[in-house]
Amino acid sequence: MANAASGMAVDDECKIKFLELKAKRNYRFIIFKIESQQVVIEKLGSPEETYEEFAASLPADECRYAVFDYDFTTNENCQKSKIFFIAWSPDTSRVRSKMVYASSKDRFKRELDGIQVELQATDPSEMSFDIIKSRAL
Amino acid sequence: MYGGDEVSAIVIDLGSHTCKAGYAGEDAPKAVFPTVVGSIDQMDVDDMTSNEKNIAVDSKNNVKDSEKGKGKRKLFVGSQALGFRRDHMEVLSPFKDGIVADWDIVDSIWDHAFRECLLIDPKEHPMLLAEPSSNSQQQRERTAELMFEKYTAPALFLAKNAVLTSFASGRATSLVVDSGGGSTTITPVHDGYVIQKAVAFSPIGGELLTDCLMKSLESKGVMIKPRYSFKRKEIQPGVFQTVDIDIPNTTDSYKLYSQRVIASDIKECVCRAPDTPYDEGSYSNIPMTPYELPDGQTIEIGADRFKIPDILFNPSLVQTIPGMDNFVEIAPSVRGLPQMVIESINKCDVDIRRELFSSILLAGGTASMQQLKERLEKDLLEESPQAARVKVLASGNATERRFSVWIGGSILASLGSFQQMWLSKSEYEEHGASYVQRKCP
Fold it and tell me: What is the pLDDT of residues B115-133, one digit of tens each?
């Protein structure tokens, strides 16, 4: 357990939908938020949606957690995918919300088994598509 | 488990220079007062001659509330009690090298915070205390013992400074550069865990800079007169007369404390970090900035405006200041801020270095120095590996920057979900003080 963890609970639905994203691949992304003392799902993205649509779904001045399933082709022409976990904490959000999301992250991430890359982003440039591409390799 | 439904926790961040205390859930601490206390040995008081009794009686009326009998000595806590000069009063700090050395003083500070500043009964409120990352197991157990045995607090939590700062900025992973009064500590935090082996510490903090400024001014013939040592009155409209008063029984430590209060104000008003490393030649012609001392004399400060803050980046500058001899012994082992940052990051795992470079957080009182953030970023860009994307962050809001630790603790302690995390009094009674290691890792 990390020091100063918030003890925030995680809704079972988060785990179920994440497993579906991982195993059945029927979502492109999931956005989570913290509401009434637990982490719940805010939005599910269908497999056809793009990274831009995903990025646009994150509010500009509120914190969120998100997972994104990134499909790409390697230099050896091999189809691959990686699951990204993004802690979105824009500088313009309120201190309270930054604190709540940061102190609940460790616990929440442990519930999602199968995350391959993790990012923390405080402005859109820190989670640009180029960064996603470079971190996937 | 602590099961109270009313969250009315108290948050205390006992720094090396100031103590911040207040109610959880608020935006800023209610009480901010010096960590040092005044102390008079009771032996001396008994020996006092009759003409000094007047002063003693007078002082009792003034500060009866904040004074506290402590066996052989009497302690005076709070800026008001310290602002009043007393015969034979020494000024003491509970800390030695960043670690609590005198628990009596800590006890008196807590007591002052609870009963004089916040007006609460500690029996009724859970306590969240911020602690330095380097706190030993022994220190933490001692804290728990004192809180539960003496104050009978219902619940306690010890949160690490660096973790609170990091979380309050929205990051679970970051490099926290905490430049406070007594020291500067660099702490890498990863997913809420402090990476202990990579923590870097330097004794250069705001107080050392204040002392350097004072010595440098003294070498130029400027003596800072403590406020108690003179009377100033208006003899005609606009014309003031300053009369020195001779007070023989004032201790050296109290004189120093009073001078530091003034010197640190000068520092906060005029100093700013230079954009490039300080050198005597190019700063010799810069315009002077005036500052009016409490006794009415106006002094002009030139190169020192830039030289003093540059000590953070280049500690060897201390040796060029006359009268700072006691520092010279340790100076060679102390490194500048950018070197410490890079060393600390290099001690961490390769995988997280990139992330640490891009989230360097400035916190603490000294971090509010003008241009400090820009200078640190610039120096790091020059010295860091090419691939690293260096980003130094500091809250634009001065209160948030200065009190980031306290604010983090305040939010945490007020969360409904956090209420299960406290180390409760019953748990303490069942498992003993060592249980604090389990509950507050």
Answer: 999 999 999 999 999 999 8
